[in-house]
Specification:
43 residues, 2 helices, SenN/SenS, FbpB family small basic protein
Length: 43
């Protein structure tokens, strides 16, 4: 039996990104967090 090939970091990132784009709830959380960061820096 062959060992499965290890995925490169770029492949993992793109896979993770596509799953996040499908998961609207996770996207909403990330957007809220980014918004909080922006507001914090503006002050």
């Amino acid at each position: 039996m062959r060992k499965p090939r290890k995925r490169s970091f770029a492949e993992l990132v793109s896979e993770n990104k596509s799953q996040l784009l499908k998961d609207r709830a996770a996207m909403e959380k990330i957007e809220q967090r980014l918004e909080q960061k922006r507001l914090g820096k503006a002050e």
